[in-house]
Amino acid sequence: MEIPSSSLLSLSLVLLFSFFLATSADVHENFVQCLTSHFQNATSISQLIYTPNNSSYTSVLDFSIRNLRFLTPETPKPLVIITPSRESHIQVAIICARNHGLQIRIRSGGHDHEGLSYVSHVPFFILDMINLRSVSVDVESSTAWVQAGATIGELYYSIAEKSKTLAFPAGVCPTVGVGGHISGGGYGMILRKFGLAADNVINARIIDVNGGILDRESMGEDLFWAIRGGAGGSFGVVIAWKIKLVPVPSIVTVFKASRTLEQNATMLLHRWQYIADKINNDLVIITDITRVNSSEEGNKTVQVSFISLFLGRVDELFPLMQKNFPELGLVKEDCREMSWIESTLYIAGFSSETSLDVLLDRTPDPRISFKVKLDYVKEPISEIGLEGIWKRLNEEEGAAARIITIPYGGKMSEIPEPETPFPHRAGNIYHIANAVTLEEGVEFSNRYIDWTRRLYSYLAPYVSKSPREAYANYRDLDLGQNNDKGNTSYAQASIWGVKYFKNNFKRLVHVKTIVDPSNFFRHEQSIPAVSPWGKKRGN
């Protein structure tokens, strides 16, 4: 009797899936046995290793998932979650994973935009750094050691406990993990004065593919260069950063001035492009662009909010604004003076009554689904070009959209492109990130992702070209990705790699090939190992 081809296909799929399950089960069991045989304290194993059979597995997995797009029944789940409390636990995990063919995902805060710190389509485990989050601040030397599992909020809080006039140039969102943030560069509200978070790293501790623990001296300057902006998950497991703290005045000034299209927002944003990267380095003015209800009943409009941090008093800020941006019509009543640590709450959107203790809360509220695409702007966008953006914000999906612009210049223009892997330095006026975000309980359908892609396509004439640059911490798999099996060529990886790193991508691949030639640390956009380097580079 002849079996229909459709039945043969179904049977093949069933057999293939059964084989995958059996293989995964074997890998899982052998991997866990390897871990338990090497961990010294058997009583603590239940607090370090979580499998799907463990009652805490789901809560541990879900706790640090920051993008609800990847918290669905269909999302691939790890065979094991490890929450190390000692460096030796990480060493064991790496050796066991290599021996049993399991891929590693390293999670510090869980903010990877494409979920690559906790999702894989091949058998994998998560190394969740949440228990390694100590911060040690040395005021006398203006330095700190911060473990990779700490959040930006925890770092800021620890600095403020010791000093009111020291800070660190990291990001705005307090729940972002320090490990990944610094690995990709890490920008924030004082980048024009002090550069990126990665620009202020002076030492690090990393565990390499062989389980060795290295510091700056023992890892060498090439690897130390690569981990400060070359993005996470490629070179090893960073366990701690030694950072240089920066001086800030005891009082800083903030303001937020919002203008709608009816209040000349288009003209103001157009004018902002000519001054934002050139004004005093102590001043940064970002913009937050959203669609809002119009004063006319039933109508919608676009609102541009100009949000600022100035490292000084309002009496110093006001003359700067009157000289450089009088069109905004800022008045002193718009401004507030506060400490730097209080400004981190203000910029993050917390109310003035919020306690600093919120910086220690690792759980964002509300949780959201999101998709973000980022570009670099080197020439001011015309008013007509801006109006084209407003048109797209008025589409149905625009109700969930937010566009953020961050000005560069200042210190960012002084640091040469090859200084760190992050190459977006002189010549950039600002970066523009377009995002769609939906709160928990609202279905995030593909039409929202399609909207970000349509806006991205529209912006093409107005942003960087050859390459069209992107930011590694705003990971975007639309730009391209590696092969699942890890045999990605230089040419294939450079499709996305040059966008993130420009000419620095070549050096990153060279470093990767030396320190991890078997390409153990890999994911969809990890730096590939190409061996032999000289022969395969052009493949």
Characterise the protein shown here:
The chain has 539 residues and is an alpha+beta fold. The chain contains 17 helices and 18 strands. The chain has a 7-stranded antiparallel β-sheet with strand order 15-12-14-13-17-18-16. A 5-stranded antiparallel β-sheet has the order 5-6-10-8-9. β5 and β6 form a beta hairpin. α15 (490-501) packs across α16 (504-515).
Number of strands: 18
Q: How much helix, percentage-wise, in residues? A: 25-40%
Structural Rg: 24 Å
The shape is globular
Residue share in β-strands:
15-25%
How many helices does DSSP assign? 17
What gap, in angstroms, lies between the N and C termini? Answer: 48 Å
What labels describe this entry?
disordered N terminus; 539 residues; globular; 5-stranded antiparallel β-sheet
List the helices and strands and how they pair.
Layout: H1 5-38, E1 49-50, H2 57-63, E2 80-82, H3 87-100, E3 103-107, E4 124-128, E5 135-138, E6 143-147, H4 152-162, E7 166-167, H5 178-183, H6 191-194, E8 201-207, E9 213-214, H7 216-219, H8 221-227, E10 237-244, E11 246-247, E12 252-260, H9 265-275, E13 283-293, E14 300-310, H10 314-324, E15 335-338, H11 340-348, E16 368-377, H12 383-393, E17 401-407, H13 411-414, E18 430-439, H14 446-459, H15 490-501, H16 504-515, H17 533-536
Parallel strand pairs: 2-4, 3-4
Antiparallel strand pairs: 1-2, 5-6, 6-10, 7-11, 8-9, 8-10, 12-14, 12-15, 13-14, 13-17, 16-18, 17-18
